[in-house]
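Re-run with default settings, no changes from the original entry. Doing this only to confirm the output is reproducible before filing.
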Amino acid sequence: MIRWIKCTAALGAAVLLQLYGTAAYYAWQLPDSYYVQTGSRLEVDTALHIAAVPTAHTVQAAVTASSAADTTSLRLFGIIPIKDVEIQEIDTPMLVPCGEPFGIKLRMDGAMVVGMERIETASGQRCPAQEAGIQTGDLIQSVDGTAIDSNQSLQEAIAESDGTPVTVTLTRSGETCTVTLTPAYAAADNRYEAGIWVRDSSAGIGTITFYEPESGSFGGLGHPICDADTGDILPFGSGEAAAVTISQVTKGVSGCAGMLQGSFSDDAPLGELLCNNRCGVFGTLYHNPSAEEAIPMALKQEIRTGAAQILCTVSGDTPKAYDITLEEIDYSGTDSTRNMTVCITDPELLEVTGGIVQGMSGSPILQNGKLVGAVTHVFVDDPTRGYGIFCENMVRYGLSGS
């Protein structure tokens, strides 16, 4: 009898230890905050039952300063605590899934430093920018109080100094600072220079993810536009969305990403860009670009692995639906642009593109009649697969301005 009691106690302890281990795993895997449809309760789809038990605490929501989020306790089998999460009630947005290509013309809020060079002077080689402490990735905003909005305006401000030290105001890692730069006379160019390479604009092709009929707002790309040299998100000044016609596809193969190639239209712009952030580019369109009907945005806990579709354009300017599989979903949201692993399964799309190619970023993902998210990245070693972003993240960090 005593041996039986000891065995039972040991077995119970082992089971309890395993349950708490499972709870710890879910605490790591599940996100710290959720949206739910107004008037509904959180339901978490997991292999083992997890209950959402409301608590008495209330915290301020991250999305808007005027609304509040309830704190809910997630518990394994309704008993074993996993962690507390924030629940924000929202009216699920109705969005038009698009898939049309668009041209991105982005102008920066200043001139970004992308490189430096030494200048040959009468007394030897110098790099005035480096001597002043300017670094790659800095955003130059003014020279002696004159606003800098292009490479040309920077060159003119330096040339007009006649070699007199100038005060350069710049932004570095979100902080504004000033440095003193003494230009060098470049005999080869017959002018004073700073020994600096800058970029003031960017252009490319992406895909419109969604259009919001009520406001005319749109979101596209699903990832930020970054500088090719520094890797930093390009600081936004102004921009426009242009009409694009896809004329050719470079098929993706293992080790080499493919590409959609197209031409910008000379017609009037499609709309205005207002933001370039970690979840894409956002702005307003002058008219609805899609013939699709508005559908609900999927909340992240509603998304499932399995069959889905994307809308994308690989010829002309008219999107088409193609079959995909959502292989993995990262509900924790540690990377706001890589929430899902996407696999292209549609034979027609594979024949044309080889899978995901550059220019398809922003292609909307649909599942069970809802807008799930957008394609964002391709795996270079396997172009049939890549990443996708939750639409919830695009709306939260794009349309809300967070």
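Helices lie at 2-29, 128-132, 151-159, 347-353, 391-399. Residues 215 and 284 are 8 Å apart (CA to CA).
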